[in-house]
Design a protein that fits this description.
The structure is a single chain. By secondary structure, this protein is of the alpha+beta class. The protein folds into 2 domains: 9-71, no CATH class; 77-230, Immunoglobulin-like (Sandwich), CATH 2.60.40. It has 4 helices and 11 strands; from the N terminus they run ααββαβαββββββββ. The chain has a 5-stranded antiparallel β-sheet, with no helix packed on it. A 4-stranded antiparallel β-sheet has the order 3-8-5-4. The chain has a two-stranded antiparallel ribbon with strand order 1-2.
Length: 232
């Protein structure tokens, strides 16, 4: 989501360095917020309102800084790319290759999903203690139809009490027909997440119809901070 960015004193008071450092310049000279800054702005506005309610103007400034920091607890990054051509993927399914013992006949007049796998991995903690989680999915689309399907990937992140923390829907803009596609998304868990469990759900949707949902439990243990547990 693009939000026009302003460098006014009000914006600085609300979010300070969190917002201004995330301003990016468009080709036409205008400004927009980085995706993570949008969350920080929402957090800053909320913090300002709560702080002002109890401590007036100074409470707004303090609450804005705290709220902006909270808005960065879950950042977001997403990209999609095509990794194999339609000819390669259709041939694999027709011939029963790529670890397939039974061949599958791609439809002649449409393009449909045939596979959706997801892998979740975690990186090292940064200087602030936040740890990046990467969700990589691979999707196979097969068929010989002329109509390119609309393909989306939905993400949902839940805390250990099953409360929804974040929900995203991203369009696979790289889809131009049959083929194999890879998506990569990243978000950060707060430093306080160590020892807690988070659930990550990702769903493939084609032409407004859900194809498959993959669910993972992300558990960062004290002794093994990169351990991930899978839920079926």
């Amino acid at each position: 989501m693009n939000v026009k960015c302003t460098k006014s004193p009000l914006a600085a008071a609300l979010a300070g360095v969190f917002i201004l450092s995330a301003c990016a310049t468009n080709q036409d000279g205008s400004y927009k917020y980085d995706a993570r800054a949008t969350g920080a702005l929402i957090g800053a506005l909320t913090g300002c309102a709560l702080g002002a309610a109890t401590h007036g103007g100074k409470g707004c400034a303090t609450g804005a800084v705290v709220g902006a920091a909270a808005g960065f607890l879950i950042g977001w990054y997403f990209e999609s790319k095509k990794t194999s051509t339609a000819e390669q993927v259709n041939a694999e399914y027709e011939n029963g290759t790529r670890n397939r013992s039974i061949s599958v006949e791609p439809p002649k007049d449409s393009i449909v999903p045939a596979k959706f796998d997801t892998k979740v991995s975690t990186g090292q903690a940064d200087s602030s203690g936040q740890r990046e989680i990467q969700v990589t999915s691979n999707t196979d689309l097969i068929g010989y139809g002329d109509r390119v399907p609309e393909v989306e990937q939905r993400y949902a992140i839940y805390d250990e009490k099953n409360n929804l923390l974040e929900e995203k829907t991203e369009k696979l803009t790289s889809v131009d027909g049959a083929g194999r596609y890879q998506t990569n998304s990243k978000f950060k868990l707060p430093a306080e997440s160590k020892g807690k469990s988070y659930t990550v759900k990702t769903t493939l949707v084609t032409n407004q119809k859900e194809y498959k949902e993959n669910t993972y439990k992300v558990t960062l243990n004290e002794s093994q901070p990169t351990q991930l547990a899978l839920i079926y």
